[in-house]
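Q: A reviewer asked whether we had any structural model of the full assembly, not just the individual parts. We don't, so I'm hoping you can provide one. Inputs are below.
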Amino acid sequence: MAGRVESATAGLVWRQLDHWRVRWRRTWRGSAVTTFVLPVLYLLAMGVGLGAYVDEGGPQASLGGVNYLDFIAPGLLATSVMQTAVGASTWPVLGAIKWDKTYFAMIASPLRPRDVLLGNLAFVAARLLMTAAVFWLVLLLFGVVALPWALLAIPAGVLIGMAHATPLFALSARLERETGFMLIYRIGVVPMFLFSGAFFPVSQLPDPLQWLTQLLPLFHGVELVRALTLGRPDLLVDVGHVAYLLLWCVVGLALADRSLARRLGG
Amino acid sequence: MGGDEALVEARGLRKSYGAVEAVRGIDVTVRRGEAFGFLGPNGAGKSSTMRMIAAVSPPSGGTLRVLGMDPTDDGPAIRSRLGVCPQEDTLDSELTVRENLLVYGRFFGLSRPEVARRADELLAFVQLSDRAGARVEQLSGGLKRRLTVARSLINEPEMLMLDEPTTGLDPQARHLLWDRLFRLKQQGTTLLLTTHYMDEAEQLCDRLVVIDEGVIVAEGSPAQLIRDHSSREVCELRFGADDHQGVAERIQHLGERLEVLPDRLLVYAADGEAVAQAVHEGGLTPRSTLVRRSTLEDVFLHLTGRSLAE
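A: Here is a predicted structure for the entire assembly that you could use as a starting point for your response.
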């Protein structure tokens, strides 16, 4: 019985392919350019420009003995997929509920709220894959990826993105007004971006802040991607990062499922 | 496929949102091929009822069968055979007119060539073929509504549900839409619609229920409802003075029934002209006098003491 329900869901999610394909076709060019240009600018300004000062007198021990460019390149990949995830799971979700109301059109067809959620998240995952892959190519151009481990930074990027997208989807599905997003950006996204170890080691932070940072999925994402692009993963530690990110995905998915079902099916 | 087959059967149907009871126990049967209407003011419980029938909102109580199935358990199967035209547009504004149909048809499991064929037919049906490549956000309200109707027909539904189909449309757009709906009815599509426009109900519905504060207060064909709950004619009188109540007492005996509205008096009688004449002979001089046939508006006023449009 459970098997029958499962396969029905897969079929109903698949039926959304054209919907998301057409939307993608409308927007991918613009986002591809930003996805490519922004990392180049960041890496030039911070990795190369700022890095020249940081690396004066040789690589810093607190950076793990690597150049600043090598240090922040994976951090930028992780923060970049996080930002893509935030963008894709906030305004568009509320828009499909409140402005265009496209979710309501979708559930008037055979699709159920859960199918709509899974279809939308599959689309988010595809966007994350593009962001991570393009960013990875930029890193390759800058010569800061150690193959073959670094290849895994791409799926890791998708995982990091989904760990943010699923709980934010849940939150967006509950919001009444878009003003909530401003708050999420100011007290959530921006501090997380700055203090999750992408730009400097979190060991520089006071202890309580270090603990707080380590609760955030982004910190684990940054550490994971860095281990991969530097080509020196520590199996136990990095499996731990993956498990923690997966936990956010699973809990986020369960919350999003409940939130959307409640919002659409009242 | 007999004419008596019930597509919707509701018994004691209820819907609550927290402490608010939107639908308070209604019995409705909609048969294949008929055009059935829910007539009532905003907030009467029409949209809540429609959402339950459309299998997107579970009933809070009572029983409901749609196409012979239970909407709580068989939602996808029911929805695959329904067309839904919601009150507020739910079109994808980033896509073109035609793309909206193409992607929506795929939700029903239709193949791409099949969806493309139906999309072109439906665009012709709602007279939007020349706008096929336009972005939805560039369309007027009337065109958007026509596109929504086209989209709701992409799965060739057995029953088309329309929630306030012409609210907010200009008269020309309304008449075009009514014409299209009438054609669908001729082709055998069952129509289920809500409206707070009595003329819409009279134009489109074979049978309707008058719904107010979550309960059904009357049921029948438009003509039958008027016969049962109103007089044949109405004499509308407007007096300049604010003393409507005083005037009302003086002319009470002239009709079967009298309603005092803020701006006019309505005298219900079989012969409206006779009432108008008697008013004048009684020495009263209304600023204006209008004799007309009774409408569903009068039925509603009589049944609830309130008018339909706020």
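A: Points you may want to mention in the reply: Chain A touches chain B at residues 8, 11-12, 15-19, 22-23, 26, 100-102, 104-112, 264-266 (CB under 8 Å). Residues 2-264 of chain A form one domain.
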